[in-house]
Amino acid sequence: MVILFWPVAFYVARLEREVRMRRYRMTHSEKKRLKKCNLLPNFSGLQVAVGLPFLLILLSLYLMPLGIYSPCIQEKENLGPKPTIFGHRGAPTLGPENTMMSFEKAVEHGAHGLETDTRLSYDHVPFLMHGFDLRRTTNIGEVQPESAFKNPAFFNWDFLSTLNAGKWFVKPELRPFYNMKPLSEADTERARNQSIPTLADLLTLAEKERKFVIFDLHGPPPKHPLRHTFVRQVVSVIFASKIEQHLIFWLPTHDRQYVRSVAPGFQHVGHLVSVETLAKNNISIINVDYKKLFPNGLRDYKAANIRINVYTVNEPWLFSLAWCSRINSVTTDNIGLLSQLNHPHFFMTPKFYMFMWLLADIISVLFIVVIFCFHWRRETKKEKLFETSSTPTDTCTRIENEEDLHIAMKPPARVVESPWTLAALYPALPKSGKEHQGHFNFAAPSKKLLPIKNAVTPLKPGKHDIQPPMPTTVFELTQAPTR
Known about the structure:
Blueprint: H1 2-25, H2 28-37, H3 40-63, E1 84-88, H4 100-108, E2 113-120, E3 126-128, H5 140-143, H6 157-160, H7 185-192, H8 199-209, E4 212-217, H9 230-240, E5 248-250, H10 256-262, E6 267-270, H11 275-280, E7 285-289, H12 290-296, H13 299-303, E8 307-311, H14 316-324, E9 329-332, H15 335-338, H16 350-389, H17 392-408, H18 422-425
Parallel strand pairs: 1-2, 1-9, 2-4, 4-5, 5-6, 6-7, 7-8, 8-9
Antiparallel strand pairs: 2-3
Helix pairs in contact: 1-3, 1-16, 4-8
């Protein structure tokens, strides 16, 4: 807004100078006519039309911090603990997603838990895969192109275990994140040899590292042998892994009563529903998309002591917002960056926020005043220079010259009589005078008669007075005849 004020101030000051200069040039009659036409007030209207909206917008920006709420504006003692981190499909910026390399990288960077997607093969083996087909993360297009669009649940595990799940990751054109750091040669070779893991492989790693596990369970399509019993098959695999039950965040909603009965230690996770519904289903944890949670508010869930996990949080500023909002945990792809964050971004106390707000407003006002004074002073100098170079006498002279020029532009009058005729010399001579022309003798003048400027315009001769020029011969005096 300070930069934008430069042309605004220039325009307003220039309009003011134009108004004053026009008033200075005007004659009394023009000023009277101007009052009737109401032209000059339009200049003031232009100034208002340009300057007033700018000042209103600027004032609203100055006062906007009064209406801004941010959870990161609070006292330091009220800041909650740092949210714990779940690796979204492992660490997909450090290794191919949903592979053992990706989960191991997440553990190395301090992940609190591991998030994944589980499907069941046609021969009852739960494995880790997110997509609805195998084209994006495996080499199914090279091995069996005709089966590329087939649902993964219709393949046997013997075939799925032979697919490569890491070559796509090392191809530059298929990198899933634009800000990924280059892999080392060892990690590149390791990623190139990754395969699809089973759920049992992940549970073994989580049990060893004592990490929480949360997963989406995709039900098999129709005509699958485990279409209605897939939840029981997954629970049996979890029991077989010997992992502690409290490390399992159970997210699937299908057949939840059965799971509660056989695995009471599982921590059941709900979705973004009302607090009453969560209390009715005895759920104290929710897994929510941050885009849906923050607009709806957190007050009701905090009052009910419900733990909140939000996904997918990849940016430090968004993680800082979750931290200041006392979010318990986040699911992220960018575990390497968020794990190094030790303090939320944009965190400030209310006093410091007020100080920064007022300081920014004061500096802005000072810059705007200086810019306006600069333009106003420059236009005032131009106006004074015009006044000294153009006095009122000069103005009157200019007006008289314009009148003379206007008169000079009129067409010349028609020549009626020759300067050598009696009608020209004696324009007021009556008609009866022409009868005695023969009794007088006139001689031609030795010099031409010059027309007199600025003289009174002679009376125009009548229609019958216009006669051809008289001869210029000299009459000789003769003796009058005697009787």
